[in-house]
Amino acid sequence: MSFCSFSGGEFYKDHFETGMYVCAECGHELFSSRSKYEHSSPWPAFTETIHENSLSKHEERRGAYKVKCGKCGNGLGHEFVNDGPKRGLSRF
Length: 92
Description:
Largest sheet: 3 strands, antiparallel
Number of strands: 7
Strand order of the largest sheet: 5-6-7
Oligomer: single chain
CATH architecture of the domain at 18-80: Beta Complex
CATH superfamily of the domain at 18-80: Peptide methionine sulfoxide reductase
CATH topology of the domain at 18-80: Metal Binding Protein, Guanine Nucleotide Exchange Factor, Chain A
Distance between the termini: 14 Å
Shape: globular
Strand content: 25-35%
């Protein structure tokens, strides 16, 4: 994760209340709290999106994808994929 910065204070990493995560710019539905999981990254992580078009992704580096809102293009973070099990989105 050398090209992701973290300044501390990420509120949604440990937030597990029932609900919907939406784009902060346009309100497009992104994730359900049911798909959120705990992990070692400082950012929240999810296993699946609400809609097929909730996100758009493009590979920036091998195994590192830039993730954007599928409706307005707002930057949401990165997805890191390795040869192991799929880990989901590591930041939104």
